[in-house]
Design goal:
membrane; mainly alpha; 75% helix; 219 residues; TVP38/TMEM64 family membrane protein; 12 helices; transmembrane; transmembrane helix
């Protein structure tokens, strides 16, 4: 069999498996949202408690997945349960983002190289291969040295601000969503755990704070 044809077939199969997984995870998000669509009334406190627990656990897990719109669960919970649930949503959001970051932190960077090769992005894969044996500081120095575009250099130098902006940018699901962004941040090795945590703790706070203190209702 032609080796190039075999390689293409493997790529197509893996890509379809990835798409199927993302579709199932997205379907799971919508199922959880439907489960949260209930009316709070006397006598159904146990059901409400179970819905909050289910929503919280699903929110942390699904939000951490790349390209999955897990944030919709948090919005649905805020809309269903109001300001009282805002602290839980805030803690769950930070936990989910740091879970994704830590998964990336412990993944071998060669996994990113293989993924880029799978997507036939050879130049990006070669860059990752060059960075793999380097420490975090050396990787950052290499990336800065290799960039002539001012915007990219500024983004790397002020990478924590760029991280906060990326996580909060509407429509960021096309670049992986919050979970994907944080996973790549951890995998890159150029973001320290403490500063990444502080960045996310500040970046995701505006909406829960607005709901909690201003009584903003999300629909």
């Amino acid at each position: 069999m032609n080796p190039s044809r075999t390689s293409t077939t493997k790529f197509v199969v893996r890509f379809l498996i990835l798409i199927a997984f993302l579709v199932l995870a997205t379907w799971g998000v919508h199922m959880v949202k439907e489960a949260l669509n209930l009316e709070i009334r006397p006598g159904n406190e146990a059901m409400v408690h179970r819905a909050i627990m289910l929503g919280g656990v699903a929110y942390v897990g699904l939000l951490a997945l790349p390209f999955v719109p897990g944030a919709e669960i948090g919005i649905a919970m805020l809309a269903a349960f109001g300001p009282g649930i805002a602290p839980l949503i805030y803690v769950a959001t930070v936990a989910s983002m740091m879970l994704a970051y830590m998964i990336g932190r412990f993944l071998p960077i060669s996994a990113l190289e293989r993924f880029l090769n799978l997507l036939h992005m050879q130049r990006a894969a070669a860059l990752v291969a060059r960075a793999a044996p380097l420490s975090g500081d050396d990787r950052l120095a290499m990336l800065l040295d290799g960039q002539s575009k001012r915007a990219v250099r500024v983004g790397l130098r002020y990478r924590y601000i760029a991280l906060a902006v990326a996580v909060n940018t509407p429509g960021n699901s096309i670049i992986g969503g919050g979970g994907g962004i944080m996973m790549i941040a951890g995998l890159s090795g150029i973001f320290s755990p403490l500063l990444a945590f502080l960045t996310i703790a500040i970046a995701v706070s505006p909406v829960p704070l607005a709901v909690l203190f201003l009584g903003l209702r999300l629909q």
